[in-house]
C-alpha cells in the first residue's frame, strides 16, 4: 500500500527517537511538517535533519517551541502550525511525554501533576483542538480521513515501579485517546490511532539497543499502517484498527 504525498502533519513532542523518524519518513514523501516541543535548539537541529531528508521534495518544515502541558500555549502553537503550513492538518501526532525514572515511594505530587499535564491534558487539548475545525475533512468522501495519532506503550495496563509517575499519567492519557476513538469518528470525521510500543526505544550504538525497538523500524512497522489505512476507508470507519502494539 502507498501513502499520499504532499499532506500536512503537526507532531507535538519532538526528540531524537520516534518523532524524528516519523518526520524524516514523511519528509521523503513531500509532506508539510510542523514540529512542536520545548527546546528550540533541539527543534532547530531536528528540522535541519528533516529538511535534508526531503531529497528534492518541496514540503515545508517549520518548528515552534511550546510546552504541550499548557493548554493555551499548545493551542496557540497548533494554530500557528496551520497558518504556517497553509492549510488544515491531515494528521496530528501527539507524542509528548516526560520519559523519566521515578519510584512510587518517592515520586512527588508535583512530578505526578507535571506528567499528567504533558500526557493527559496535552492529549485532551490536542484532540479537542483538532476536532474544532482544524482537521482536513475535504477528502473524507473519497475515503481519506484525517487522523489523530497518539503514541503510547503498555504502562497503562502494566504499570512499572521504576516509571511510576509516567505509568499513572499514561493510564490517563490512553483513556483520553480511547474515549476520543469512540467519539471523534462520528462527531468530527476524525480517526484515532494508538501506536503502542511494548519496549524501550534506544538509539543505535547506545546500551540496550535492539533492532526491534529501533525508531525507524517502529515507524515502518506500527506508524505506517495507520497512514496507509486512513486513506483506504471506502466503508468509513468500519474495520479501522485503533490500537496497534509493537
Ligand atoms: N522511548 C521509549 O522507550 C518509549 C516506549 C514506549 C512508549 N513511548 C512513548 O513515545 C512517546 C515519546 O516518543 P520517544 O520516546 O520516541 O521520544 P521522541 O520522539 O524522541 O521525543 C519526545 C519529545 O517530547 C518532548 N516533550 C516532553 N515534554 C514536553 C512538553 N511538556 N511539551 C512539549 N514537548 C515535550 C521532548 O522534547 P523537549 O524536551 O524539547 O520538549 C522529547 O524529546 C511518548 O508518548 C512515550 O510515552 C516511548
CATH class term: Alpha Beta
Assign the CATH topology.
Answer: Rossmann fold
DSSP strand tally: 8
Helix content: 40-55%
Radius of gyration, in Å, reads 17 Å
| Count of helix runs | 6
Number of discrete domains: 1
Name the structural class: alpha/beta
Mean pLDDT: 96
The biggest sheet, with number of strands, parallel, antiparallel or mixed sense and barrel status, is: 8 strands, parallel
Shape: globular
InterPro entries: NAD(P)-bd_dom_sf, SDR_fam
Protein name: NAD(P)-binding protein
Organism: Aspergillus avenaceus
Pfam families: adh_short
Secondary-structure blueprint:
Layout: E1 8-12, H1 18-27, E2 32-37, H2 40-52, E3 61-65, H3 71-85, E4 91-94, H4 109-131, E5 147-150, E6 152-153, H5 164-188, E7 191-197, H6 215-229, E8 243-245
Parallel strand pairs: 1-2, 1-4, 2-3, 4-5, 5-7, 6-7, 7-8
The structure holds NADP nicotinamide-adenine-dinucleotide phosphate.
Protein name: NAD(P)-binding protein
What does this structure look like?
- With 246 residues, this protein is α/β, with parallel strands linked by helices.
- The protein contains 6 helices and 8 strands.
- The chain has one domain (8-245): 3-Layer(aba) Sandwich (Rossmann fold), CATH 3.40.50.720.
- Strands 1, 2, 3, 4, 5, 6, 7 and 8 form an 8-stranded parallel β-sheet that branches.
- Helix 1 packs across helix 6, helix 3 (71-85) runs parallel beside helix 4 and helix 4 packs parallel to helix 5 (164-188).
- This is NAD(P)-binding protein.
